[in-house]
Structures are given as C-alpha cells and as structure tokens.
Amino acid sequence: MVTTNRIRAACVDDVRSKLRQRSDGYQAIVVVSGVANALTGEAGRRDHAELVRATAENLGVGPESVLAACTGVIGPRLPLSRVTAALPRVVQDLGEGWVALHQAASAILTTDTTVKMAGRSFRLTDGRRASVVGIAKGSGMIAPVLSPPQATTLAFLLTDAPLTGPGAQEILRAGTDQTFNMVCVDGDTSTNDMVLLLANGAAGGPPADSDPCVARAVEATLEDLAQQVAADGEGATKLLTVEVHGAADPGQARQAARAVTRSPLVKTALFGADPNVGRIACALGYSGAEFDPSRLSIVLVDGARRFPLLQEGRIAEELPHGGGSRLRLRLRQMDHVRLRIDLGAGTGEATAWGCDLSHGYVHINSAYRT
Amino acid sequence: MVTTNRIRAACVDDVRSKLRQRSDGYQAIVVVSGVANALTGEAGRRDHAELVRATAENLGVGPESVLAACTGVIGPRLPLSRVTAALPRVVQDLGEGWVALHQAASAILTTDTTVKMAGRSFRLTDGRRASVVGIAKGSGMIAPVLSPPQATTLAFLLTDAPLTGPGAQEILRAGTDQTFNMVCVDGDTSTNDMVLLLANGAAGGPPADSDPCVARAVEATLEDLAQQVAADGEGATKLLTVEVHGAADPGQARQAARAVTRSPLVKTALFGADPNVGRIACALGYSGAEFDPSRLSIVLVDGARRFPLLQEGRIAEELPHGGGSRLRLRLRQMDHVRLRIDLGAGTGEATAWGCDLSHGYVHINSAYRT
Fold first, then answer.
1. Has residue B41 got a pLDDT over 50?
2. Domains defined along chain B, listed by start
3. What is the pLDDT of residue A370?
4. pLDDT on residue A138
5. What tens digit of pLDDT does each residue of A163-182 get?
6. What span, in angstroms and rounded, lies between the C-alpha atoms of B229 and B182?
7. Residue A147 has what pLDDT?
8. DSSP result, B245-308
9. Cβ–Cβ gap B73/A362 under 8 Å
10. Among A98, A339, B119, B332, which is most buried by a count of CB atoms within 10 Å?
C-alpha cells in the first residue's frame, strides 16, 4: 500500500511498478530516514536504483527482491555515498527477534518521539500457531490515503502465516482502510507513505489468504500501530479517538469521523482541555455526512464513565455556562480522549484517530525544516 | 448567501426560508456578536424570532423585512434581554456614511483585530454613477462554503445600483464563489456564515442585473473584504495569496489553490519564513488536481521580483542546501506572500487566500472558548 499523492518519492514509484508485476519473492526492505527523495526527478530515480542495488549486493540477493522506503525532507537528494558506505555494517548487524525489530523501529524515526511496535500471536483456523509483528513511524504530514500499489507514515509488518502475494495484498488493503487510512495528524497526505506486509509462510500449511484469523491479527496490529502514530503526532499531548455510529452508510461514518479528527478548532480545544461540543458538531456539519441535527448525540467516554456533551441536538446542561468546569479538570488529566458520536441516521460505523494541536506542532514545523 | 454546514444557526435558517419566499423588500440587518445561537434548538428559534420582532418594532418596519446574523460561541443561548434592552439606543444612534459603517464594522468583530471595510464608486454602463460598500468580520472558523440560501464569516454589502432581488442574488453568488468561498483560515466551515447584499436603487434607472459594471464592483468589494479576513486570520502574521494557473479546468484550479492555503505544514512553514517548496508541492499532489509533477512550477512573487522555487519539477538550486537563506530573510519581512503555481495541465485558473499558522492561533483557540 503506497500513497495516492500525485507527487511521489522515487521509492514509491518503484514499489508501485514492482508490485504491479509481481507480489511475491520480496526478501528485504531498506529504509532511509531524514530525506524523502521526492521531487528529485531523474537524479532521484538513479539514486534510488543505486540504493536498491547496493542493498541487494550487500545482502547477496537480487535487486528485484529488495523494496525501499524513505522519509524526511522533500527536495534534497539522498546522501548516497554515506548510505552505501554504512550498508555493510547495517547488514552485519542484522539480528533476530524483538531486539532487532526495536532497533529497526528506532532507526526509522524522524520527528517521532516514541518507537512504535505491535504484534499478535494467534492460531490459524486449522490450529497452527502464527504471528504478525509490525513497526511504524509517523508524526507529521500524517493523513495517509493509501491504495494498493500507496504517510509519511511508514509501517512494515512481518508474518509467518502462509499467504500468497495477492492474498497478502488484499488482507493489507482491507486492514489499512480501517486503520492507517483513518489516522490524521495534520491533514497533509505525504509523498512517501508506505505500508508493507511480508509473509514468509514459516508457520506451515496451505495458503491462509481467506482465513479470518489472519485478517484479524493483521488489522489488530495495524490498528495498534496507527494509534501509536496518532498519539505521537507532532506536538501531541492527547490521543483522540472518534467513533461514529448511526451514519447513513459506512462511507459517511468515515467522512464524519475524519472531519472531527482533522478540525484545527477541535484539536486546539482539546489541547486547551475545553469540552467545546460546538466545534465538534460544526465539523460534523460540514463533513458531508447526512444527519438531522436534532438527532445528533455526542458523548465523551472516560473509561467506564460517560459524559454526555450533546443529547439529540441539546447541549448538556453543564456546558454552556462556564464551559463545564468539572469536565475541563478531567480533560486536563486525560491523555486519551474518546468521543462516541451518534448521527441518528442509520447503521454506518467508523473509527478515526487523531491528536490535539499544540504549540509544539507549530514550533516543530516552523522552527525546523522537516 | 449562507453556510452549507448541516448544523445551522437559527438566523441562517431564517434567512434561508425568507429568501426562498422572496428576494426583495429587506430594510435592515441586525447582527449579534459573541453568541452564535447555533445548536440551541427550539429555544434558539424563539430567541431569534424575538430578536427580529424587537428590531423591527424599534425600527417601525415589519419583521418580514429584517434579517439577522449572529457570530460567536456555539451552544449558549442569546442574552436576549440584554440585546433587546439595547435596541432602542442602537436604533437612535443609526447614522450615515463611512463613520456609521465603521461603527457597524467595529461592533460585529469577535476575535478579529482589524475593522474590515471596502467599497467602490463606479459608473453603470448607461453612465449613471453608483457605489457599493461592504463590511465584514471573520478570523477563525473560516473556510466558507456559501451557497445561495450559506464562515463565521459575515459580510454585508450595500449598493445604490438598481437591482432586482434575483439579479442581486446572482451577482452575489458569482462574486462570492471567486472570493469568500476561496478563503481559508483553518478549514472549519462555520455554522453561521452569511454574506448579504442590499440594493436600494437610489442611483436611479432601470434594473442593472446584467450590467457587468455592477458585477465587477461587487466582486472587487467582496475580494477586498475576503483578503482582509484572510490577513486577519486568528494569530496570522502573513497573508497568503495562491494563484493557480495551467490546471485542467477551473474546478481543479480551485481545489489546488485551496489545498495549499489549507495545509497546516505550508502554513507553519510560512510562519517560520521557510520557503519549503516540498510542502507546497505535497499539498498540490493530494489536492485532487491532475498534473504531471515534471511540469509543475512554483514561483514566489515579491512585488516586481520573482523567486522561482520549483521549475518544471526541479527544485531551485538555492533551496535544498540551507533552505534558501536569502529567501528566508526576505520572507521574514513580508506580510503578504504570493505564490504563483503553474500545473502545466491546461488553462484553468483560480486564486485562494489564506494565512500562516502561528502560536497565536493555538493560543486563541485553546486558552479561550470561542
């Protein structure tokens, strides 16, 4: 899955064309953090080809089995000689298990402040044990719209479940649509977004492409990583989860949930611990989702407690005057704010993830070039 | 023209229903600043009706000839008794000319820092003299999508040109589409946006509905006000004008121009005086406009000087290394940044207006309830 942005990094173009030809046989992913290698034209394509060639050479595999991903500043060329000079040591240091995965998850970060890893052990329907693990990075320029051969969100999943190439693609597409494609930090869809899944079949048995146990484990891992990306959005102090219920259809539920997570006014209110339900309703109102305002309900979920903000179009008594001082105090303490919205227009549901908009976001993106 | 948001203030619903019945005979506009009277349900509708009734009574006109507009916090009810108690003095203080207009323009402000007025004297095609004047407010929750009976952008225009009701509506629709509908401060489309034009025909002569001189003067006045709104966006330190040329069609030009003005990464780079062309190209890439990245050119216009940032897909030499230190110095001094973008895909053109995203925006919207 790679970005749908019309401006695409050289690595994205290469993944697109490789996956159009064949979806299996991949053995390695090389990731460069710090430079996007986007808007670099023909020189960028040559740099990319050399990165892939040198990686393949060091690994002793063919260049057709190596995929590359980049993240960083758009415009500058790759510092190719520094990268290729480091490759022998990188290959020598390749390790196994969680420690190696943690090193990789750490190495790919840019403005991220936390390492993002997730994983599940599960049983295939036929009883065999399998696992899926994933790492991700992403903090700004986050509003992935990924399509089969499309942040800068990068996520890489590995599983030992037996999958064919097309089967793995379909499982990843379905999972990404419900997870990474529902994350928004700033609404800027990157030139470099990429989510890859490699499946080596080591768990044994026939292809499990249509085994729901695999799809569930992959989606759960993607959702876990997607939430970690949203929670670590540039400058973020709070993770925001928006669940929309009662939409006319699932597409409208997605539009509604994404509008709330994208709204700068909702995001700044959240930073200020202000339960400003008017701004939430306003974002729903322009989202494109159809609903009757007199049937709209919005609840703030705080663990087992429910704070109604809006009930069938009526603002909760506490809120208009003084802006809900109890709620403000509670909001100030929460690092994960969950909104449950009922549009009262049908049965469509969707969940989106975002974060608040703080002084940190402005500082990171105005004082430094990213 | 009123907001297309599905959550609409009581005043917006009233204007919609009045203008659906008839488009002429209006004599007064009453504006309440501080409270939006949105999400207030049936009580809000009663409050609105009483506001209109009391205004009409004080003016000695029928309530059907009074329009109302509100701006402010969503959720609370109007402080009706305070408003109606003030009406006799408001009516008594009604004045003429620029001084009265300035008082009105000042009274309707919320988080605005400047009074917004504009006007033109012009000649009708038949030689008669006419004028159009306008006032506006708007600083946050600005991304108007106005349609014939749709920020909280409010703008009120008065002209003495002779126009029929339907003629005035069409001139206002065409002008608003090219001006207020192309302004974006934060991407949040308000529940209360309203742009009204009253024409009293005092210039004399037959209806001038299809006189291009009137349409030009109205659009010029709207554009002037729209730019003032963008320049005074919450926390803004710079006005951003984005001209897109060479789009496949005018609709795609609009999408492309609006994507750049809406991008938080472009807006924060602008605040940091960073000529970050990668972020601009990225926004164009996800805008939905079709173009070939190798034909994309982006120029920073500084009066008579042109700084090329991207030429047919190639980043200007100066930019990648050090980020264009000369340009940064110049950008720091500019309070109006103009970008001229050529998509190289056709002849479609559009202009959009926005502003930078500063610590001021975050402060205003997190520390205070608006």
1. yes
2. 2-231 (3.60.70.12), 239-367 (3.10.20.340)
3. 63
4. 85
5. 999 999 999 999 999 999 99
6. 11
7. 64
8. EEESSHHHHHHHHHHHHH-HHHHHHHHTT---HHHHHHHHHHSS----GGG-EEEEEETTEEEE
9. no
10. A339
Minimum distance, in Å, between the CA of residue B336 and any CA atom of chain A: 17
Region of B327 (left: φ > 0; alpha: ψ -120 to 50; beta: rest) is: alpha
Task: Encode pLDDT of B291-336 as tens digits.
Answer: 999 999 999 999 889 999 999 998 887 665 555 678 888 899 999 9
Q: Packing angle between helix B359-367 and helix A264-271, nearest 10 degrees?
A: 70
Q: Taking each helix axis from N to C terminus, what angle separates A264-271 and A277-286, rounded to the nearest 10 degrees?
A: 160
The amino acid sitting at B199 is A
CB pair distance less than 8 Å for B281 and A74:
yes
What is the DSSP code string of B9-68? -HHHHHHHHHHHH-S----EEEEEEEE---S-HHHHHHHHHHHHHHHHHHHTS-GGGEEE
Please indicate whether, in this complex, the C-beta atoms of A265 and B191 are within 8 angstroms of each other.
no
Q: How many CA atoms lie within 13 A of B22 on its CB side?
A: 7
Q: Which residues of A are catalytic?
A: 152
B chain contacts of residue A297, beta-carbon cutoff 8 Å: none
- Name the least confident of A261-270, B2-11, B241-250, B331-340: B2-11
Minimum Cα–Cα distance from A152: chain B residue: B282
* Residues in B touching A279 (Cβ below 8 Å): 74, 141, 188
pTM summary value: 0.86
Residues of chain A with C-beta less than 8 angstroms from the C-beta of B262: 187
SS3 B130: strand
Contact A1, A23 (CB under 8 A): no
CA A102, CA A183: separation in Å to the nearest integer? Answer: 23
Listed residue (A248, A158, A152) closest to A197, CA to CA:
A158
On the question of pLDDT at B122 being above 70, the answer is yes
Q: What is the pLDDT of residues B163-183, one digit of tens each?
A: 999 999 999 999 999 999 999
